[in-house]
Design brief:
binds (4S)-2,6-dioxohexahydropyrimidine-4-carboxylic acid, globular, TIM Barrel, four-stranded antiparallel sheet, eight-stranded parallel barrel, alpha/beta, 20% strand, single chain
Length: 304
């Protein structure tokens, strides 16, 4: 009877398992498999101020160890989310996190204001999409820009906690993490996808029309665990860990590395029940280790 609840930047969840942005749409398809109230939180597909078609295809390339995507933030826009998707998610007893990307700090501010007014539980400020030229990548790879976006988001989010999603496509992720913390972020989420490429040797063309994309899935788990560990040691604000988590043991690694909660992404495509299996596996590990709460795992990695 392990206590599964965790509190991330003041937001208490019944368990530490969140579905990662972009892997669950707005929850509708998954709601047919099980009660979404079983999850700790749902991070909605990334939103922009205006609707976007995303990038031309092919924009998904599967590999034996994960998926490359160059979707490019296809979404119906923040107003459509608030009008039709948020009310759907509100039927469930689950925390709702909105993920946002902007072309300017001002756009982030406008979206934060709308989402705070609409009553989301948390805002994930995406400064790390690898698939867009304007904004996106640039904000997440430069400490001053990352800090500026964070400040504007905080100024417009009212009481809603702001979590900033970091890019792994940097030399020193702790430098960005510190800048974002200094700008007032309430939490950090990491990692977004790791830039990669796959080539069809027969046609000699890259599989993706955009040539490169963001890698997710099992291949990135060790990179993500390392980054969660480095960032957790560099900042005081809590971390939502993600990147290749598909079972309880993966989530336990993330938490031992310092994560307060974990997100499951790519694993949802192959198995809609993956988030629940992660939750149950995590509970089993905590029980086996004689813990009374799963939150005791956080930061528990032992130094050599
Ligand atoms: O890998 C990603 N793909 N990360 C993002 O932040 C956005 C997404 C997309 O839509 O391209």
């Amino acid at each position: 009877n392990v206590d599964l609840s965790v509190t991330l930047a003041g937001m208490t969840m019944k368990n530490p398992v969140v579905v990662a942005s972009g892997t669950f749409g707005f929850g509708r398809e998954y709601g047919e498999f099980y009660d979404l109230s079983e999850l700790g939180g749902i991070c909605a597909k990334g939103l922009t101020l205006h609707r976007r078609e995303g990038n031309p295809g092919p924009r998904i390339a599967e590999t034996p160890m994960g998926i490359l995507n160059s979707v490019g933030l296809q979404n119906p826009g923040v107003d459509a989310f608030i009008a039709t998707e948020l009310p759907f998610l509100r039927q469930y007893d689950v925390k709702v996190i909105a993920n946002i990307s902007g072309n300017s700090p001002e756009e982030y501010g406008v979206m934060c204001e709308k989402l705070a007014e609409a009553g989301v539980d948390m805002i994930e400020v995406n400064i790390s999409c690898p698939n867009v030229k304007a904004g996106g990548l640039a904000y997440g790879t430069r400490p001053e820009l990352a800090a500026e976006v964070t400040e504007v988001a905080k100024a417009h989010a009212g009481q809603v906690p702001v979590m900033v999603k970091l890019s792994p496509n940097v030399t020193d992720i702790t430098e960005i993490a510190r800048a974002v913390e200094g700008a007032g972020a309430d939490a950090l989420s990491l990692i977004n996808t790791l830039r990669g490429m796959r080539i069809d040797v027969n046609t000699r063309r890259p599989i993706l029309k955009m040539n490169t994309g963001g890698m997710s899935g099992p291949a990135v788990l060790p990179v993500a665990v390392r980054m969660v560990w480095e960032v957790s040691n560099a900042v005081k604000i809590p971390v939502l860990g993600m990147g290749g988590v598909s079972k309880g043991e993966d989530a336990a690694q993330m938490m031992l590395a310092g994560a307060t909660a974990v997100a499951v992404g790519t694993a949802c495509f192959a198995d809609p029940y993956a988030p629940l299996k992660v939750r149950d596996g995590l509970a089993e590990i905590a029980a086996r280790q004689g813990l009374s709460a799963v939150s005791e795992l956080t930061g528990g990695v032992k130094p050599w």
